[in-house]
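Before relying on records like the one below, remember that each one covers exactly one chain. Contacts with other chains, cofactors or solvent are not represented anywhere in the record.
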Amino acid sequence: MQLTSDGLDALWNRVRRRYAAPILNLSLPDMSGFEILHWTRQFDRERVTTMIAGDLALNPRKHVVTVDRRPIAPHPPEFALLRLLMRMGEVSLSKAARHLDILGEDVDEDVVLAYLRLLQEKLDMRVEQSDRGWRLLSTRTLH
């Protein structure tokens, strides 16, 4: 737990540390709790984070994917689909198609399924369909 007496210190502490449940006073000197929340959200959006799922790592800013520290070179729509899957866990084909449409790829559900299969081969992972959508499973978790 970290106590501060003003908004600037609170903002500085939040930028330096990750808190599971920050409690902000709305009437701190220098800036309100709402302002601190706004600026920390902005900072979190700009922070470079590597998404990790088992032996799979994806760095959105550098556009790099590794499996067991081995670099993989997915095409841009494959990268976008993998990022979506890692962020959401499971995704329906129609939602994935809409996501790729937003990125400028004119695709339908069959094309998304083809991209899923390409990812499966490149990443040595298995694509599995569940009640809610599709997801990638590491081959290491299958044994």
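The first strand starts at residue 51 and ends at 53.
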